[in-house]
Write a structure and sequence with these properties.
By secondary structure, the chain is of the alpha+beta class. The chain has two domains: 136 residues, Fructose-1,6-Bisphosphatase, Chain A, domain 1 (2-Layer Sandwich); 114 residues, D-Maltodextrin-Binding Protein, domain 2 (3-Layer(aba) Sandwich). The strands form three sheets. Strands 4-3-5-6-7-8-9-10 form an eight-stranded mixed sheet, with helices on both faces. The protein has a five-stranded mixed sheet with strand order 12-11-13-15-14, with helices on both faces. Strand 3 and strand 4 form a beta hairpin. Helix 1 runs antiparallel to helix 2, helix 4 packs across helix 8 and helix 5 runs parallel beside helix 6. It starts with a helix and ends with a helix.
Length: 263
């Protein structure tokens, strides 16, 4: 698999950060945990891992901007910007669940060009480049080909810090759980999207997410043949924070099911 310098740099950053993350994961009981808001935590693992990522990215491309969850929001006159989540799934990390990921995306203005999602606990490395496909450890990915919702396994999350959105989300969950094979809530939007790209899930939706949660995953799903929109069927996902990702056939069914609660 031939990859661009951008992807090579992002992979190098993710793997270096993954080594840092696993050192903290093995001694997670020593972590100091700060609460940003309800069920939203930050530890020294997050900040140390983010520093390692930004060091690697800045060393290779000092002229690029940065949007990182824990520290820096910098624009660039070049139009290029890295979008970074050092540990997506911090709650899982804190509790010893090996389901978390380093997420790195590269955008030029509003167009995503490269993506890396890495779970260092499982050594699964998801990568994508615009127009060049999506891969897991070098193997090409495709979304599922199911046409019926009752054959589908879906994934979602809960916006616990947004009571009105939570109420709408619970309505949506009720509608989709009755029509599907099941719904999973595993606590990492980055990995949920990577799993849609890999065909492990048939679809994923969640409201009120941040750009660093979903930027890399959007490109992965798109390059794996999936469709990604907001809940109105539009493409301004990073602005709205509401995301629906699935194969084109299942996306149409899920969108029709979701929209009554969100219109």
């Amino acid at each position: 698999m031939n990859v661009s310098p951008h992807i090579n740099v992002a992979i190098r950053a993710a793997r270096a950060a993954g080594r840092e993350a696993m050192m903290f994961f093995k001694r997670r009981h020593e972590l100091n945990i700060e609460t940003k808001q309800k069920n939203d935590f930050v530890t020294q693992a997050d900040t140390t891992v983010e520093k390692e990522i930004l060091y690697q990215l800045h060393k290779a491309y000092p002229q690029y901007g940065i949007l990182a969850e824990e520290s820096r929001h910098e624009t660039s006159s070049t139009g290029w910007r890295w979008i970074v989540d050092p540990i997506d799934g911090t709650t899982n990390f804190i509790h010893g669940l090996p389901h978390f990921a380093i997420s790195i995306a590269l955008a030029n203005d509003h167009e995503l060009h490269a993506a890396v999602i890495f779970n260092p606990a499982t050594d699964e490395l998801f990568t994508a480049e615009r127009g060049r496909g999506a891969f897991l450890n070098g193997q090409r990915l495709r979304t599922t080909q199911n046409h019926r919702l009752d054959q589908c396994l879906l994934a979602t999350g809960l916006p616990v810090n947004h009571p009105e959105r939570l109420h709408r989300q619970l309505q949506t969950i009720e509608a989709l759980v009755l029509g599907s094979r099941g719904i999973r809530r595993l606590g990492s939007a980055a990995l949920d999207l990577a799993f849609v790209a890999a065909g492990r899930y048939d679809g994923f939706w969640e409201p009120a997410l941040q750009p660093w949660d979903i930027a890399a995953g959007i490109l992965l799903v798109t390059e794996a043949g999936g469709l990604v929109t907001d809940f109105a069927g539009n493409k301004n996902i990073l602005d709205s924070g509401n995301i629906l990702a699935a194969s084109p056939q299942i996306h149409r069914i899920m969108l029709a099911t979701i929209q009554p609660a969100w219109s």
